[in-house]
Write a structure and sequence with these properties.
The protein is of the alpha/beta class and about 325 residues long. The chain is built from 13 helices and 13 strands. The strands form two sheets. An eight-stranded mixed beta sheet has the order 9-8-10-7-11-12-6-13. Strands 3-4-2-1-5 form a five-stranded mixed beta sheet, with no helix packed on it. The radius of gyration is 22 Å and the shape is globular.
Length: about 325
C-alpha cells in the first residue's frame, strides 16, 4: 500500500520518508543507516519541495513551522532609487541573493522593504550586540503590531521576528532552523566561516537576503555566499551614490594597532582562554570545537572564566580605543 511521503525537520537536516516515487528528489537525498531513512540537507528544502511539486508528487510537509505575518509598517518613507532597484533585483532572483551597498546607504530600510514584500516570520542575524539592539529598535518602531525578540546577550526570545547575533544563531541553529521563512544576514561577509555557515545550512528558509558593504574576504570564502544565501543581485559603490543618497566623500583604509596596554590585556585574556582549551582538549577549528567550548564553559568556573576572557579579548580587538584616537586626529 502506497504511503504519502513526509518531510520532517530533524536538528538541522530533513528526513524524507517513505521515499517518494520517481527520481525528482534523488539528487538531494542521502541514505542514513542510523535511522534507515533518507536525509536531505536543510538548505535544500526549497529545491526539494519545488522538484516534488514539479513532478506532481503528493507529500506532507511537517518540516516548516514558519507562518505568514501581517506587517503593517508605521515607519515608512519613499525609498531611494537604488533601494527600489535592489529590492526589485532581489525579488526577481527568487528572493534569494546578496545586495552590496556602502555604509549609510540604507541597508536596514532595504531589509524592512524586503520583509514587507515577503511577510513571513523573519530571522535577522548581525555580528555584534550593538547592532542587534539597533536592529531591534528599528524593527520595533517599524512593526509595532508584531512581536520582535532577541537571541543573544542573555536573551532567548521565541518571536515571529527575531534579531540574533551570529554567535547565538550558530549555537541555536539546530533548534531554530525551521522557524523562519526569511533570513536576513547583516554584514553577511561574516557568514562563510566554519561555524557561522551552519546558520544558513541548517535552515530551511526559502527566502534569504544578504547585506554587506565589504563582501570580499581574504580567505576567498565570499564565493560561498552564492550557496549559503544566493548570488549578488545588486551592487553600488560609494562613488556611484555620492552626491545623491550619500554625501561626496572618499574612502581611506587606516590600519589601527592596539596600544601597549590593550595588547598586554589582550594577550593575558587569550592565554586564559587557550590554556583552558588545551586542558579540555578543545580545538576551535569548526562548529564542533565552538560547541564543545560553549558546553564546557557552562560546566565549570574555569570554563566560564575562559569564555568571558574570549569575549573580552574579542571586544578589545573590535573596539580598540585606537580607532577613536585615529578619528579624533
Amino acid at each position: 500500500m502506497y504511503r504519502t511521503p513526509t518531510i520532517k525537520f530533524d536538528r538541522g537536516t530533513l528526513i524524507l520518508h517513505p521515499p517518494p516515487q520517481g527520481k525528482a528528489w534523488v539528487d538531494y537525498a542521502t541514505w542514513d543507516d542510523r535511522v534507515e531513512k533518507f536525509r536531505v540537507r536543510a538548505i535544500d528544502y526549497r529545491p526539494l519541495v519545488e522538484s516534488l511539486k514539479a513532478a506532481k508528487i503528493d507529500f506532507v510537509d511537517k518540516a516548516k513551522e514558519f507562518a505568514p505575518l501581517e506587517l503593517i509598517p508605521s515607519l515608512e518613507m519613499p525609498p531611494y532609487p537604488h533601494q527600489e532597484a535592489a529590492l526589485k533585483a532581489w525579488k526577481q532572483s527568487g528572493r534569494n541573493g546578496v545586495v552590496i551597498l556602502p555604509t549609510a546607504s540604507g541597508k536596514t530600510y532595504l531589509a524592512q522593504l524586503a520583509m514587507q514584500a515577503t511577510p513571513r516570520s523573519t530571522l535577522v542575524v548581525v555580528p555584534t550586540l550593538d547592532l542587534m539592539h539597533q536592529w531591534y529598535a528599528h524593527l520595533n518602531a517599524a512593526f509595532p503590531d508584531v512581536e520582535v525578540g532577541l537571541l543573544g546577550g542573555g536573551s532567548r526570545d521565541k518571536t515571529p521576528i527575531l534579531v540574533a547575533t551570529y554567535d547565538s544563531a550558530t549555537i541555536h541553529a539546530e533548534a531554530i532552523g525551521n522557524k523562519y521563512a526569511l533570513l536576513v544576514f547583516d554584514e553577511c561577509h561574516h557568514l562563510p566561516t566554519d561555524f557561522y555557515r551552519v546558520i544558513a545550512e541548517y535552515a530551511i528558509a526559502p527566502y534569504r537576503l544578504g547585506l554587506t558593504a565589504t563582501p570580499n574576504r581574504s580567505d576567498g570564502r565570499h564565493s560561498d555566499l552564492d550557496y549559503l544565501i544566493g548570488p549578488t543581485v545588486f551592487s553600488k559603490t560609494p562613488e556611484e551614490l555620492a552626491g545623491a543618497a550619500l554625501a561626496d566623500h572618499k574612502i581611506v583604509q587606516i590600519m589601527v594597532k592596539l596600544s601597549a596596554q590593550e595588547r598586554e590585556e589582550y594577550n593575558k585574556l587569550m592565554t586564559i582562554r587557550n590554556d583552558f582549551l588545551k586542558q579540555a582538549n578543545i580545538k576551535l577549528g569548526g562548529l564542533n570545537g565552538w560547541k564543545n567550548f560553549v558546553i564546557a564553559s557552562a560546566r565549570s568556573k574555569a570554563g566560564r572564566r575562559a569564555m568571558l576572557a574570549h569575549r573580552q579579548a574579542k571586544e578589545i580587538a573590535l573596539g580598540t580605543d585606537g580607532k577613536l584616537r585615529t578619528l579624533a586626529n
